[in-house]
């Protein structure tokens, strides 16, 4: 019996490959699993030319205590989702991904960012100024201004759903 019997039919192997969107979104969900936020686990993966440039998840700045250790100020104050971001001790996933690019000298101009959640207005403004061209998201977020700014700046926003996880042959 061959070691890789599943590869005996190359057509079956092709059918098992996820689309690029499904592939990058799944990676982004794994990145989100590193989040230390008590309210929402968010991941971001910046892609250019079908290559991963950087990733980020929401959590406290490097070397500082995470919300899992000290609690969530926004939860304690019952701040609704999408409001009063300045009270949060964490950086957003998109911010961390953009900062990783800056830290390591990686240009993200013209890139696509895959996010588990629609960016907030702060992250949207950073994406616009970084020259990003597209955002692919799987969940919405209550920040209408972010959506309006992305549209005004010509940054394409696409929603990805697991129903779109078609296979690809490229």
Q: Describe the sheet with the most strands.
A: 5 strands, mixed
Cα distance spanning the termini = 30 Å
Q: In terms of quaternary structure, what is this?
A: single chain
If strands are numbered along the chain, what order do they take across the biggest sheet? 2-1-3-4-5
| Number of E strands | 5
List the helices and strands and how they pair.
Elements: H1 10-16, H2 20-32, E1 43-48, E2 51-57, H3 67-70, H4 73-76, H5 93-103, E3 112-115, H6 121-129, E4 134-137, H7 144-152, E5 156-159
Helix pairs in contact: 6-7
Describe this protein with a few key phrases:
170 residues; 5 strands; single chain; globular; 5-stranded mixed β-sheet; alpha/beta
Can you offer a commentary on this structure?
The chain has 170 residues and is of the alpha/beta class. The protein has 7 helices and 5 strands, in the order ααββαααβαβαβ. A 5-stranded mixed beta sheet has the order 2-1-3-4-5, sandwiched between helices. It is globular and about 45 Å long. The N terminus is likely disordered.
Concise synopsis of the structure shown:
The protein is α/β, with parallel strands linked by helices. Helix content is 34%, strand content 15%.
């Amino acid at each position: 019996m061959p070691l890789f019997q599943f590869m005996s039919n190359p057509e079956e192997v092709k059918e098992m490959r996820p689309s690029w969107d499904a592939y990058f979104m799944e990676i982004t969900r794994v990145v989100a699993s590193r989040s230390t936020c008590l309210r929402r686990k968010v991941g971001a993966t910046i892609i250019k030319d079908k290559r991963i440039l950087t990733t980020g998840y929401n959590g406290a700045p490097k070397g500082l205590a995470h919300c899992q250790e000290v609690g969530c100020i926004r939860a304690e104050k019952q701040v609704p989702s999408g409001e009063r971001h300045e009270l949060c001790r964490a950086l957003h996933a998109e911010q961390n991904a953009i900062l990783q690019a800056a830290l390591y000298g990686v240009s993200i101009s013209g890139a696509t960012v895959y996010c588990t959640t629609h960016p907030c207005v702060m992250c949207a403004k950073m994406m616009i100024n970084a020259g990003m061209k597209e955002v692919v998201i799987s969940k919405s977020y209550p920040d209408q201004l972010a959506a309006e700014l992305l549209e005004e700046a010509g940054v394409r926003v696409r929603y990805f759903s697991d129903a779109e996880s078609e296979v690809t042959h490229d």
